[in-house]
Amino acid sequence: MRVAVFRKEHFNAAHRLHNPQWTDEMNQRVFGKCNNIHYHGHNYELIVKVTGEIDPRTGYLVDMKILSDLIKQQVIDRFDHKNLNLDTVEFSNLNPTAENIAVVIWQLMRPHLDDHLELKVTLYETERNFVEYPA
Amino acid sequence: MRVAVFRKEHFNAAHRLHNPQWTDEMNQRVFGKCNNIHYHGHNYELIVKVTGEIDPRTGYLVDMKILSDLIKQQVIDRFDHKNLNLDTVEFSNLNPTAENIAVVIWQLMRPHLDDHLELKVTLYETERNFVEYPA
Amino acid sequence: MRVAVFRKEHFNAAHRLHNPQWTDEMNQRVFGKCNNIHYHGHNYELIVKVTGEIDPRTGYLVDMKILSDLIKQQVIDRFDHKNLNLDTVEFSNLNPTAENIAVVIWQLMRPHLDDHLELKVTLYETERNFVEYPA
Amino acid sequence: MRVAVFRKEHFNAAHRLHNPQWTDEMNQRVFGKCNNIHYHGHNYELIVKVTGEIDPRTGYLVDMKILSDLIKQQVIDRFDHKNLNLDTVEFSNLNPTAENIAVVIWQLMRPHLDDHLELKVTLYETERNFVEYPA
Amino acid sequence: MRVAVFRKEHFNAAHRLHNPQWTDEMNQRVFGKCNNIHYHGHNYELIVKVTGEIDPRTGYLVDMKILSDLIKQQVIDRFDHKNLNLDTVEFSNLNPTAENIAVVIWQLMRPHLDDHLELKVTLYETERNFVEYPA
Amino acid sequence: MRVAVFRKEHFNAAHRLHNPQWTDEMNQRVFGKCNNIHYHGHNYELIVKVTGEIDPRTGYLVDMKILSDLIKQQVIDRFDHKNLNLDTVEFSNLNPTAENIAVVIWQLMRPHLDDHLELKVTLYETERNFVEYPA
């Protein structure tokens, strides 16, 4: 009885894509408008997927209220209405691309789930651009 | 030429989460508002995924009209506008969590598909809570 | 500078459509599956529209956080995860059609908004059926 | 034959809500997380509504390609991937609330449409918060 | 107790935009890719809005099942999986723009609704282009 | 650091399902309304998934702008506002079912991606019918 459950949450943040080891011209060529020195922002939609066995006593894999609260503590409270580059330790030295944000969210969530549960993160930067980790 | 086809259908139902082997207090603590003795309800969105080889004569994996009719017969007619706890045999002794509903839908559909086809069920209880079986 | 602001919230509830002054046969003929004696349910999506002048000090018509909290107090806490027919005073003698639910929500919200603000309620019973009050 | 046509576009931007005539404490109390000194951001979804008579030669009210290009020139090129507070003249002295952004977009578009056409702007700041101007 | 109810339906059709009184060059310049001689197509999403008074016996404005059946008879059966230019009398001499299709749908529906009910039609040609009649 | 990135694009096209080796009656029985000799059409929503390792210099798997441009060149410019049966070489001898269109899009995209990247295509023919290749 192996199932996956998914919980969707969202947060709004500012960010700027930039590699400090490159020249301004190189950053502009690679990241284009996303390199804007004054930042831009997104409504990030986050889907957390947890896979495991159904508990026969509850009929639950995990209690969605508990999973939702965990996402709020580990992700939403940390990133919502923040400037990812300036207001977070996670992205002070890491480029806040959708790919990297998904990896960081996975790393923040993983220690708080039982070992026998699998975890996957999908992050929508816009309705048309999204990423999944691990693939 | 292995492809998957997906068909989306929906049904509306009432349910209550409850474990009859537990005290009322325990049920309340575990299931919270979902334990409401008078039931609550959802618009369930169902996605049925079938995987196999394309038939070169039709260009189809399966005829989506036939798949849609099968879902209607096996799932929608059984659960739509029903109280899952009171009006169905499937959940008379099984807690109608999203996880268990997805498993039951898979079991209802499986015998009606050719053996060489794979079947997966995704069930949205709300836009923000959904499950997949098998994972 | 007359603008409208909209806030979307949701709740899940069970209900049954029934006119106690009619025979069972008449109820069945008029309300069909929605007359199921054991109830069925929906994910209701609610959009509250408030119209008025922008406050030049804030750039707000109303603070969306305050509007959201008001909807939660007046509507969500009252109806979410409830059986509208059995668990609420509003529908103990009123048929809980989408039309009537929208009118009741308007009546619950109206006293809590300033007189110079206009109020309109849109209620989605399903993605394909929705109502607006006042029209 | 009076019809309305709607065109949907989007842009991503950073912003901060702030009234420079207030103390920091007052700004924090009124605008909360939206007052974050380092900005946050959104995916803004914009719907432009134009109302008028169908041209019997084309069957069009306006050519949607021309309307889309006009929105891109007047709105998207100006605000997309920008910090509204720092990178735009429109919000250098105006608080970039959804209400004010909708009014500004209307003012930017209005001169470029024929006088006999009506214009309305709907702006989604998030899926759950949106505004309309004029109301 | 004046309310509006909305019912959403959809149909898929091919069409070509063309004015037979114009040269090919003029048609190409005005209608661009939509003038393709071999047709292209859309998933049309249709929202029918009916406004009037709630019937106190039912709590309904109109029975949504009856409204849905009426849309199917008057609109879906006529246009679904059709070539609007070649397979319908309505567009044999009328350019099937979204504006004109909305007007035609209104004209097809209007005679079948009670005089005291108001009717409005919204038609999505794509997620980003839609029209409303009457405005 | 294996991730997947997804890019969503869309195109509108006409098509007809037909097997030239069958009688008209057989085609009508198998393909029903989709066999209409004058074609019908769809808004196709396309999701292209690319899987591989994050480039530590950019934080990207692939630049979404480059991926979007590639989809436009290889898929959108070829199929948008076209009659798939008449205007394309790909479907001159291949039935344009959603399954076959997904396979063709994969074949068109594959040569333009680095060998170490995996490619998957999801194609929505309608909101309720979609396919994935490879499965």
Description of the structure:
6 copies of one chain form a homohexamer. The model of chain A has no long low-confidence stretch (mean pLDDT 98). Chain A has a 5-stranded mixed beta sheet. Chain A has 135 residues and is of the alpha+beta class. Chain A has a single domain, classed as Tetrahydropterin Synthase, Chain A (2-Layer Sandwich). In chain A, a hairpin with a 4-residue loop joins strand 4 and strand 5. Chain A contains 4 helices and 5 strands. Chain A is elongated, with a radius of gyration of 17 Å. The interface between A and D is medium-sized, with 22 and 22 residues.
Briefly, what is this?
With 135 residues, the first copy, chain A, is α+β, with helices and mostly antiparallel strands. Helix content of chain A is 30%, strand content 31%. Chain A has a 5-stranded mixed β-sheet with strand order 3-1-2-4-5.
Percent helix of chain A, as a range, is 25-40%
Distance between the termini of chain A: 23 Å
Mean model confidence by pLDDT of chain A = 98
Considering residues with a beta carbon less than 8 A from a beta carbon on another chain, report the largest interface and each chain's count.
A-B, 21 and 24 residues
Short descriptors:
31% strand, five-stranded mixed beta sheet, Tetrahydropterin Synthase, Chain A, homohexamer, 135 residues, alpha+beta
Helix and strand arrangement:
Six copies of one chain form a homohexamer.
Chain A: E1 2-15, H1 24-31, E2 40-53, H2 64-79, E3 82-83, H3 84-87, H4 98-109, E4 118-124, E5 129-133
Parallel strand pairs in A: 1-3
Antiparallel strand pairs in A: 1-2, 2-4, 4-5
